[in-house]
Design a protein that fits this description.
Structural class: mainly alpha
Number of helices: 4
Number of strands: 2
Radius of gyration: 34 Å
Largest sheet: 2 strands, antiparallel
Shape: rod-shaped
Oligomer: single chain
């Protein structure tokens, strides 16, 4: 039994292959966008977590009067924008965004905590914690007793 392939059959097969190829490309682009979004989410979230961890470990430490998490975030973002890491610069931007977000979250938390403690939105600082009680005073001998050799 002989198969009779005509130009029409070949054209139809080619059209179907092109249609499926375009569909596959659309899926690949969609998957690529989802993957890029997931990577960004992990990098920004990881940077925020690291910034919070550093802030907790250092007790809101600073370097040259700049909060550590803010300084690291700005440095990483600057390196990313300057394309210092080449094809990986976008990842530096993402992690830097996370560090900056951790600084913003900590600042917002402290603002809200102060607002709750004072009842005022602006201009009030929380009252400082009371100082511990002073230890009892040491007895001091009277000058006349000290001159007579009495040490008390």
């Amino acid at each position: 039994m002989a198969t009779n392939l005509t130009h029409h059959h070949l054209h139809h097969a080619y059209s179907q292959a092109e249609k499926h190829k375009k569909k596959w490309e659309a899926y690949r682009e969609k998957f690529s966008a989802v993957t890029e979004g997931a990577i960004r989410l992990v990098e920004v979230g990881g940077g925020a977590w690291l910034g919070g961890m550093l802030e907790g470990k250092t007790g809101q430490g600073t370097f040259m009067h700049v909060p550590i998490n803010l300084g690291i975030g700005v440095a990483l973002s600057a390196a990313g924008f300057l394309d210092l890491a080449g094809e990986y610069s976008e990842h530096l931007n993402n992690v830097g965004d996370g560090f900056i977000a951790s600084y913003a979250a900590a600042t917002g938390y402290n603002f809200g905590k102060n607002w709750k403690e004072t009842g005022k939105l602006f201009g009030a600082k929380a009252a400082p914690a009371p100082l511990p009680a002073a230890p009892p005073a040491m007895p001091v001998p009277h000058p006349a007793a000290a001159a007579a050799g009495w040490a008390g």
